[in-house]
Amino acid sequence: MGKVKIGIIGTGSISNMHMAGYTRLENVEVVAACDIKEERVKEFAKRYHIPNVFTDYNEMLKMKDLDAVSVTTWNNIHAPASIAALNAGKHVLCEKPLALNAKQAQEMVEASKKSGKLLMVGFCRRFGENAIALKEMIDNGDLGNLYYAKTGCLRRWGNPGGWFSDKKRSGGGPVIDLGVHMIDLIRYLSGKPKAVSVTASTFNSMGMRPEVKGIQKYNSADYSEFNDVEDCATSIIKFDNGMTLFFETSWVQNIKEDSLYLELFGDKAGAKMEPEFELYESRYNYLRNTKPILDPNGSGFEHNFIEETKHFISCITDGTKCINPAEDGLELMKIIDAIYQSAETGHEVIL
Ligand SMILES: NC(=O)c1ccc[n+]([C@@H]2O[C@H](COP(=O)([O-])OP(=O)(O)OC[C@H]3O[C@@H](n4cnc5c(N)ncnc54)[C@H](O)[C@@H]3O)[C@@H](O)[C@H]2O)c1
User: Distance (Å, rounded) from C-alpha 168 to C-alpha 75?
Assistant: First the structure.
């Protein structure tokens, strides 16, 4: 096939990371961009020399010379835009979370099957070299049987506001924004077990704290202080491979500093992937810690997007098996629905 013709739906912050990938690929041409904000999409198209500009994705999807789209909108537009694109015969790379909930995600998976077009979910962290290395070790049995994992992504003061903190448009707070990556990584690394039960608490104790002075935080492009999502959450998730995951996340919490951690424990060894890669094992009955040497840039934000878009295009052009199929996005939405349901009812949710 000739060049793969791409359209971008949603030209806010993260679309620039998709462009960082697409613009590096010789067999790709980004031919269209769409955003409901006319000024923003015009400026984006000018920056990247994109010839066709739209404010309605349904108009963009009428383009015959368009093979695939990136959906990089607010979360509530992921399902309608992806389904419209699939129905119009386009392949879709949709940002995480796949949808607002599992019901929408299921409809997306069905639209992909019906159209025969690829729906890939943007779990970009799977493309980090740290994740690739750890997956290879786990797949080769270096950790033995995995029975426990823990992961967290905690911010002391980091609610981005705007659509992120408006539940109608986001589906929730740090659980659906940050947690989706961390829980996905645990599932992916441990061989994609299915969750069988979820117990969770979410807290709306701190709010957004816009009054905080002295430091800067990342604010959404269309910043507002409306906030009806959780500011913190904790959960125990049990999987059908016998593994239990402890998970916690926050946007606002009285902690010393922000932190990110991910650890998996097997009966042969333990591994920490974040904040730094370490293995805890034993040889000749001596306990020892080892530290694989990895390229420090190989797991960076932009690197992961470059690899993710490269993989998406290779799935389209070479029939490469997609490592981020929409079904994985759906499994995550089931877990996230269960976290919110358990928090609301105060009971364990059996999946
Ligand atoms: N993979 C990652 O690590 C990562 C990081 C950041 C954001 N994201 C995801 O990317 C998505 C976008 O996040 P962002 O930070 O770029 O937000 P953003 O607010 O900067 O950009 C979203 C854009 O979507 C546009 N939009 C809204 N409705 C639209 C519609 N109907 N048609 C066309 N455009 C529409 C908005 O006007 C805005 O310009 C979210 O789903 C977010 O979860 C993923």
Answer: 9
Q: What is the pLDDT of residue 296?
A: 84
Q: What are the structural domains, with CATH classification, of the chain? A: 4-124 (3.40.50.720), 126-303+332-350 (3.30.360.10)
95 lines ligand 1 (CB under 6 A): yes
Q: Which atom of ligand 1 is nearest to the CA of 122?
A: 1
Mean pLDDT of 315-342: 98
Ligand 1 pocket test: pick from 8, 9, 11, 14 the residue with the most ligand atoms within 8 Å of its Cβ: 14
Confidence of residue 37 (pLDDT cuts 50, 70, 90): very high
Asked whether the predicted pLDDT for residue 3 surpasses 90, the reply is: yes
Q: How far is CA 316 from CA 69, 70, 80, 184, 329, in A?
A: 12, 13, 22, 23, 19
- Give yes or no for residue 122 CB within 6 A of ligand 1: yes
